[in-house]
Amino acid sequence: MATDRHGVVLGAVVTGANANDGVQTRDVLDAMVIHPPPADRPNPDPDPRDRPRVRGDGGYGNGPSRERARRAGFRLVAPWQGRPRRPGVGRIRSGVERGHAFLSPFGRVARRLDRCSRSYPAWVQMAATLVMIRTGFVR
Q1: Which end of the chain is more exposed for a tag (fewer CB within 10 A), N or C?
Q2: Pick the residue with more confidence: 123 or 93?
Q3: CA distances from 126 to 23, 105, 131 (A)
Q4: Which stretches does DSSP call E strand in the chain?
C-alpha cells in the first residue's frame, strides 16, 4: 500500500501473505493514482532530493527497495533494516499504519471475505476511494 503522509491510500497491490514487501515496491508505486509531475526540462544530473518522497515501513528499508523506488522516480523514506532506531522513525511508519487503519472499518477488505482474486482488488480500490472522499482529498 502506498499512502501520503497522512495515511490516505494512494495505491494498493494485492499479493499473497508470504510475498516479500520489498519486491513489490515497483508494483505499488506504479499502482498509485497520483504520479509525480514530469520535469519541465530534462536534467542530465538531477538531485535525488528533488524527487517526490514516498514513505514505507520497515519491509521497504533496504537498498534494493530504494533502488526500485528511484527507478520509478521517487525517493523512498523508510527505516533501515538492521540498524539502530533513530529518532523520528515512528513518524515515518505512522502514515503507512494509518492507511491500514483507514481500511479497517471496511470488513470485507479487512477480513478478506471475498476469496475471488479478481474482485478483491476492486473492493480494496473502492474502499480507498471512499477514504479519499471522506478525508476531503477529492473535492
Answers
A1: C
A2: 123
A3: 25, 13, 9
A4: 2-3, 9-11, 53-55, 75-77
